[in-house]
Amino acid sequence: MDLRYALRTLAKDPSFAIVAVLVMALGIGANTAVFTVVDSVLLKPLGYRDADRIVTLHTLWKKNGHYGQVSAPDYHDWRGQSTAFSAMADYDGEETPVATPSGAEYTNAAEVDSGFFDVFQTDPAAGRFLTEDDRKTGTNAVISFAYANRFGGAQAALGRQIRMLDHSFTVVGVAPPGFDFPEKSQIWIAANSIFPETTSRSAHNYRVVARLRPGVSVEQAQAQMTAIGMRLEQQYPASDSGKNVAVVLLRDRLVGNVKFTLYLLLGSVALVLLIACANMANLLLAKATARSREIAVRAAVGASRFRILRQLIIESLVLAALSGAAGLVLAWWGASALMALAPANVPRLTELGIDWRVLAFTLAVSIAATLLFGVAPAFHAARVDLNNALKQGGGRANVTGSHRLRGALVVAEIALSVVLVAGAGLLIRSFAALENVPLGFRPQHVLVMEASVPASDRAGQLRALQFFESMRTAAAALPGVIADGVTLEPPGQSASDGSYYVDHLPRETSVNAPQAIFSVISTGVFQTLGIPLKAGRDFSAADTYDAPFTAIINESFARQSFTGENPIGHFIYCGFDSDKPMRIVGIVADSRTLGPALPPRPELYMPYLQHPRADLNVLVRTAGNPAALSETLRRIARSRSAEVPVKFTTMEVRLSENVAAPRFRMFLLGIFAALALCLAMAGVYGVMAYSVGQRSGEMGLRMALGATPRHVQGLVLRQALRLVALGLVFGLAGAALATRLLASMLFEIKPADPATYAAAAGALALAALAASYFPARRATRIDPLEALRQE
Predict the structure, then answer these.
(1) Alpha-carbon distance 132 to 113, whole Å?
(2) Where is average pLDDT lowest: 106-110, 352-356, 597-601?
(3) Cβ distance 362 to 55 under 8 Å?
(4) pLDDT digits (tens, 9 = 90+) for 662-698
(5) Residue 396 has what pLDDT?
(6) Which of 268, 360, 525, 772 is most exposed, with the fewest beta carbons within 10 Å of its own?
(7) Cα Rg for the chain, rounded, in angstroms?
(8) Of the ranges 101-110, 279-288, 292-301, 537-546, the best mean pLDDT one
């Protein structure tokens, strides 16, 4: 009966039902959408057997607490000396050119140690996994289940040949469906198959994954590895001084970079839900007050307070159920939008979906929303005074208490909105500062062609040089091309870095040696990127492999190692690919090679004719749209060699990837803040419109006694201003506490930024006053005689 009556009541007032469901559906849908992403990325178990037993091991730099990749000798010592793990393996994965019958393409491939698949305790879908013998022969490979479809399926793929980097591999196994660790790998080969393992303890080129033995905790494994790290530090002080070992759960390592961002978004939409609930409570309070005579009649004919309370709560539950169903639809759309907007480094987004956890979350949110927006109005309405309610003016019997409660809800809405708007303002200002940072180079109108020539020896590298030189010649001849060059990695990312020495090479390398970014470039790169030469000369065609090695440094490098003296003519030694001394011939201006958020670092440029590489990037500066040259250069590259895969992008697109995470946070928090602002405006409007309606007799009397329309309008606006002022006070106090959480996400902006707080407060005040203007204006049009007659 209560349910049928609730449905009939909503059907009698469809405008109220639609507005109520829409308001709550926005709050529930936004929360469910963000939770769907959080669930897929952070909460769902990894798709491996006993995934909570899989850990990653890292080199821990004790000086700054950072951890990173591992040297091969350290890894072998860890594996040999530890007893906390049932399996351990190092690996290294990246996009690799693979020859296929239809042409060359980039495919994610990984070099792995023999215990790699034992860590994940997975079984092959066909064939076998790699063994220690495969590490010695270097001729076999395992492919993913999806990649096996190219050969007609898992069984058909066994024994087939794959050609990578001028090497042929025989498929001996197929991984089970869904297995693609690391980084969506499609091919796994044994370590040492192509590139010999580095023997230097200072060359941190590998990553390590391991499985804990049964009964061993992460803390116990960490204690054992710390002891091993201390022994290695004493045994190899030159290379391992200041180093130790970090043991991290695989899940935490995969989601470490995005965990806080996702929880921040979940907290933000929770605030939006609270604001929506406050709005709904206001709507229900107004409706309950309007129904006071109906409730009084029901009480007069015998309905108990509990019976009335139950009826009103069931009506709230019906609204919550309808809102939850609509919210699920919005959540599906919103989750898809989040997946499209999310940065590329957010893991496991392909597992996104509505499952039982999401449905349970939506149900829980809907019930919680009912308690938040429905219970207080229901209790308030159930406390009916029969004598007053049954009088002709009884529709206003509960005005005083209702008005106070609705005012408190509006204050809460404004306060929560201030927190969101202030947070969004900080992220917007931070992103604007990030976008306006001088990069030290000009990314506009620069096309980037990434190519990789199959090569693993000196002869292959010479073929690669010929290919890239021919591409430069062909690009320079195209109309609209202003400059061109070849580089190992364009600005925005670093392909290599490490230690270096000035004028002499010590007998033993040291972890305390100065560090720099290593860049390999051709002539023309500085002109193409607009990096000015400050002293000396640029590289030339004479800087060949047989000539004395040369180098160019940036200004940060010069300040770090040559304070007060001229660097030109000094020699640099580094472990990039040769121990030959490199004579400094030039100095260029600093550029933010690692993206706009990080200051320029010391950088060492080396000519690519002296440091040949098979995987390089051709840069082409054009007078017009650089992307228009993509297909022309693709055809030219295919005509030069069908075995060379190519990919095209622009410098501006590459650089946008550096700010993808702050842009994602700013965009979503801005949307939530705008939604909160709209809901707060609606709340203020509803309260003031209701207040004007309830006080129409009083205002009519005032006007009959001589009050001007301006005086009446000011009366309403002052009432709104009091609510707004209270909301701003509480909101700014809350923002001062909450925005501290954003400190690590801000660039050149402090969490307690006065300008941002002032703008947030001003925006809320103006929006609230604008929302109260229309009820105030309506109050000035009250007919005194009509208002007094109704009283």
Answers:
(1) 8
(2) 352-356
(3) no
(4) 888 898 889 889 888 888 888 787 777 766 666 666 6
(5) 47
(6) 360
(7) 34
(8) 537-546
pLDDT tens digits, one per residue of 723-776: 889 999 999 999 999 888 888 888 888 998 999 999 999 998 888 888 887 777
DSSP H or E segment with residue 773: helix 754-779
d(CA 760, CA 772): 18
- pTM listed for this prediction: 0.80
pLDDT band at residue 179 under the 50/70/90 scheme: very high
Task: Tell me the Ramachandran region of residue 714: left when phi exceeds 0, alpha when psi lies from -120 to 50, beta otherwise.
Answer: alpha
Token output for 568: 């030109």
Longest dimension (CA), the chain: 106
Which residues are CB-contacts of 410 (< 8 A; sequence separation ≥ 6)? 278, 282, 680, 683, 684, 687, 723, 727
Identity (one letter) of the amino acid at 359? L
CA distance 335 to 354: 9
Which of 724, 736, 23 has the alpha carbon at shortest distance from 372? 23
**Is the Cα dihedral 339, 344, 347, 350 positive or negative?**
positive
> Which residue type does 322 have?
L
- Amino acid identity, position 324: G
Exposure string of 164-173, with b = 16+ CB inside 10 Å and e = fewer, is bbbeebebbb
Cα–Cα distance, 60 to 62 (Å, whole number): 6
Whether residue 206 contacts residue 113, with contact meaning beta carbons closer than 8 Å, is answered with: no
Quote the CA–CA distance of 373 and 721 in Å, as a whole number: 24
DSSP per residue over 229-279, as a string? HHHHHHH-HHHHTTEEEEEEEHHHHHHTTTHHHHHHHHHHHHHHHHHHHHH
In b/e form, how buried is each residue of 193-202, taking b as 16+ CB within 10 angstroms? bbeebeeebb
* Residue owning tokens 């109520």: 20
Q: Quick one: which of 133, 130, 146 has its CA closest to 186?
A: 146
Give the rounded percent of residues in the chain with a pLDDT score beyond 90: 39
